Automatic annotation (TrEMBL):
HTH tetR-type domain span: 16-76
A Pfam family annotated for this UniProt entry: TetR_C_11
Keyword terms: DNA-binding, Transcription, Transcription regulation
Segments of the chain annotated as binding DNA: 39-58
Protein name: TetR/AcrR family transcriptional regulator
InterPro entries, per database record: Homeodomain-like_sf, HTH-type_TetR-like_transc_reg, HTH_TetR, Tet_transcr_reg_TetR-rel_C_sf, TetR_C
Native source organism of the sequence: Nocardia speluncae
GO molecular function list: DNA-binding transcription factor activity; transcription cis-regulatory region binding
Length: 201
């Protein structure tokens, strides 16, 4: 009997319902209590599963929270050709407005950034699966704009990524600086258009 149960455990594929329950439980706990109060035991309890089941999937709290952010926002905004650089930058910034206003991200980021500094392997996953797709999307927007003749070649896409994301991140970290609203979206897009030499009229 013990052998059979052990065999079923080792041969059983991962249950996607458990994956989804764990990610949802972690997101709710972060929004309600903040990153610092998040424990793997609390997530397991809220998801109705065991801590070993959680540890089989995630190596640490930071690993779990990175998975939550990838699950919620691991899309590639900017992939759609909207016919012009301004419309496409607005689309990616409206996506980022939603991202940086999400209480899960706002309450996770300060503690997560600190913990990523101590866990290089999780930091690499965060960079590759969460940050890099967004930066590639911005680079794609700029490449399309060059191909259309809207802007000149030679634009530093990494700088434009910093330029549009940096202001949102600082307001997410320090909310007293002001809201991340549609007006702020417009300001950041205008700054990016100025930086690439395309001025709105």
């Amino acid at each position: 009997m013990l052998d059979n149960s052990a065999g079923s455990r080792t041969g059983r594929p991962r249950d996607s319902r458990v994956d989804a329950a764990l990610l949802e439980a972690a997101a709710q706990l972060i929004a309600e209590r903040g990153y610092g109060a998040l424990t793997l035991q609390a997530v397991a309890d809220a998801a109705g599963t065991s801590r070993p089941a959680l540890y089989r999937r995630y190596s640490s709290r930071a690993d779990l929270v990175v998975a939550v952010l990838i699950d919620r926002y691991g899309l590639q905004p900017g992939a759609e050709d909207l016919g012009g650089i301004e419309a496409e930058l607005l689309a990616i910034q409206q996506h980022q407005r939603d991202l940086f206003n999400d209480p899960v991200l706002r309450r996770a980021v300060p503690g997560l950034l600190e913990e990523l500094g101590r866990t290089p392997e999780v930091a690499q996953r965060f960079q590759e699966q969460f940050m890099r797709p967004r930066r590639l999307s911005t680079a794609t927007i700029l490449e399309r704009a060059i191909a259309r003749g809207e802007i000149a070649p030679g634009v530093d896409s990494e700088w434009v990524c910093d330029l549009i994301t940096g202001p949102m991140l600082i307001r997410a970290l320090v909310p007293t600086l002001g809201p991340i609203d549609e007006k702020f979206v417009q300001y950041t897009v205008q700054a990016a258009l100025d930086a690439v030499g395309l001025h709105k009229h």
